[in-house]
Amino acid sequence: MAVQRTFSILKPDATERNLTGAINALIEKAGLRIVAQKRIRMTREQAETFYAVHKERPFFGELVDFMISGPVVVQVLEGENAVLKYRDVMGATDPSKAADGTIRKLHAKSIGENSVHGSDAPETAAIEIAQFFSGNEIVG
Ligand code: ATP
Ligand code: MG
Question: Considering 117, 128, 129, 132, which one is annotated as catalytic?
Answer without folding.
Answer: 117
